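Section 5.1 Outputs to date
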Amino acid sequence: MMKDTSKIKFINDMEVSNNHLKINKPFKIQSDNQRRFIRLEISTPMTLRKVKDVIGNLWSTQKDYKIHGDILNISPGGVLADLELPLNENDIVALRFCLQDVENLENILGLVKRVDHDDDRYLTGIEFIGRKQLEDRLSKAELELLSDELGDFETRVEKVLNRYLYSEVGTSHE
């Protein structure tokens, strides 16, 4: 069952000194030297729908079929989500969520990278992808069937995150 409200979940604060990033409220940063991206630790409801499953079925006409869950963290590279139903690795999905009741994001393309089952929940890692990356995974006919509303990482998520991430010297990434 989805939570009714979004909450910031503080895992650990990043020590801020010269040449580090700072972050604007209402977010906090988690830093991990083994990760490619800094992660924002949040707990916010999300919904997603399959675009194409690993078997090859195109779900472009199944807009009413939605999977609900909660995003546990987000980075410029993707999200870690706690979902109520399972997905398969390499499923292509479209995500919808709101960042801290501040930014609504819809039709964000993602590729399922991992799924771990725990009791009745599914911890799912989803990488953000763009329409260009779909060219390697979908036929030309399948691409034509997809809605133009499906957006890629650069045009939607990165722009939003860059409103909150900035360098210590105060320069914006936009």
